[in-house]
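The data layer described in this paper is built around a simple, fixed record for each protein. Because each token names a local backbone shape, the row as a whole describes the fold. We quote a single record here, exactly as it is kept in our systems:

***
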Amino acid sequence: MKKENILLWGLVLLFAVMMSVPFLIPHTGLLALFGLVPLLCMERIADLSGKKRIWLYHYSAFVIWNAITTFWVCNATVGGGIFAVLANSLQMSLVFGLFRLSKKKFTGSLPYIFLAAAWIAWERFYFDAEISWPWLVLGNSFARTTWAIQWYEITGALGGSLWIWACNLGIFGLLVSISDGSIFYWNRKAKAAALTGIVLLFAGPLAASGIIGKDYKDSMESPDQLPVVIVQPNIDPYNKFQAMTQDQQNALLESQIVSALKDRRADSITSPLLVVAPETFTSDIVCGDYPRSRTWRRFTSLLQEYPGVNMLFGASSYDYLYQEERPSYTARNLRDGLWVESHNSALMIDGTSRTDIFHKSKLVVAVEHTPYPRIFCPIDDLLGGVMGRCVGQEEINILNVKGIDGQNIPIGCAVCYESVYGEYYTDYVRKGARAMTIITNDAWWGDTPGYRQHLSYASLRAIETRRAIARCANTGISAIIAPSGEILQPTPWWEPAVIESSIPLRDDITFYVSHGDITGRVCTFIFILLLLALCVRFVTKK
């Protein structure tokens, strides 16, 4: 192999490792500020040397990065994991390929501005795409380096993506000027301005984070508090009904709740308390006919003994529809004239039999959701119904914690994968949520980086909205997440556990909640303008 090829593949591997470390090792997020430089150097060296099929290098770079950071998806579905790695890498490579195309018509730094804007525009689009897997959004690199990104309350995670691109392009530009010798022709003022600019790119956001973060050092302290009990039953989802019946699972959860609420029977206790149980704990909920469920009956009966206690738990729920014609592409036929639509739901109940319900909207592709149902549902029918067909809500709704004195506390509940979607998540706060919950079941991936990454993304949502989170995971990690993003009282992995704590209730609205993803919108606008300019240059002679 030629030395040049060794250098190019070495840069490919260096990029993949540097960009993977922040997703795998806590407190290493700042490495992402340098991680794209090897990829940019590889492209420049390959381009200047007249290398053919450069796409093989950058596509391989993205495949290796995706594989190192998200290989754990294969623990749940091998085919889905391989598809996620290859398809996500292909999209990244197409963005990079578009950048290389722009270099034919744009000069100077403009292609690199185009690359940064195109990448962030793609990340923003990916949040709302029918097939969506935004796990490796660049701004997520800081999920376990939260001290550096307290300003996400203004920009959201895509502000982190912009910071990463700005720092990497600044360093790359400096390296290019050194390699071609142009820096030696700059006057002192130009050199000082360039170095000052790079220092500010790195230090400015860190200083801003330190200043903003001071206001949230005591973010768990508030005059308004909601006591919570988070119950982690630790039930293996792969053997959920083979090893235990639903009644046995209910008994296990009830014993944990009763033990935690042993002091709540006194008549003098009127303050509300929230018990949080994990996602899809039961599968016997029929929407609109809740008493039909043995689980619902058992827990509403239990809560009658505990005034002011509310319980939030996850369930696979169903709507049964009686009509001759198919009501929707997602409905499955049980028999002639009877159809069923399924949901991944969160229910809030209390001892009065009051029931609020929310259906998960951001659904996992293939496992829960059949994309483009008009096309793929008929195909799935021919295959015997192998894909998930959960139906989500069009709009978020709030669940209410109620005390016996009439106190009403609006709470948001993000179900599992929904906690990855920053701008979507802000809708809970816009609709009045004073605190948040996340219910999930991360055991599908085994003891891999997957469940730890998922937990860390909750810290980003806490900072963006400044809402505390009570996170309940079936097998771990359950935790309290402060508005500062700090993870408190984390439970062990794969052990039954109970957290007894309180979370602050807040009414303030962050800039990001109020105005949404301005970074993504501006970058999308710039990308569209530059793309139009690129198209014009390709169709004109000059």
About this structure: The radius of gyration is 25 Å. The chain has 17 helices and 14 strands. Residues 230 and 499 are 5 Å apart (CA to CA).
